[in-house]
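Entry 14. Structure prediction run on the chain below.
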Amino acid sequence: MNHSLLTELDTILDLLTDYVEAGYRRQRPTAIAAARYDGAAPVALSAGDRAAELRELEQQVRCCTLCPLHQGRTHGVPGIGVLDPLVMVIGEGPGAEEDHKGEPFVGSAGRYLDKWLAAVELSRSSNVYITNIVKCRPPNNRDPLPSESQACAPYLARQIELVRPRAILSVGRVAAQLLLQKEDGIGKLRGRSWKYRDIPLVATYHPSAVLRNDQWRRPVWEDLKRLRELLDSSS
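Output returned:
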């Protein structure tokens, strides 16, 4: 079998994984890696100052009108968790329950995520911060449009600066592609060593996808163990 045919088959399998996970909605990743909140250089802040600035940022998210997603939201969903966490979890965007409550990952996928975290001694109440690429729910839970992701990119960039996670766990194809500026499917992005702004990053499947397809439970467990090993090696 020649190389071009192998490449084509590999691409088809990659696309099929995306389709099974969330329907075929692939798009070019929006630039997010270089986005900043206000264009200023990082400033050394105390934990108290960072907490105050994070609260202010969260309020700005709740009132944000930078893209059309705000028109259909019940609540903006900035994030939840602790400062200086071991891990920052970054997903795609809020769903219906998240939009209703104003908190990320509170539906069935969120409860499943909590079980993942607990399996590697992590918890949103003690050593994790959780957020999403976009802070308002896309209609019908579709992928965020590039313009929507770009509008929220400075919020996410500033969150990462203020929260200061030791590592990042990106869940789902959309989050991984945007953070890593890659077009590969999650099947290719997971299982590898990545960094976002010098922060170790582990990419894995989205909890909602694994709830629908339990064949991905073992790969997720492998990714979680990789994450735990990264944390233990840096402690």
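The mean pLDDT is 87.
Filed with the rest of this week's runs.
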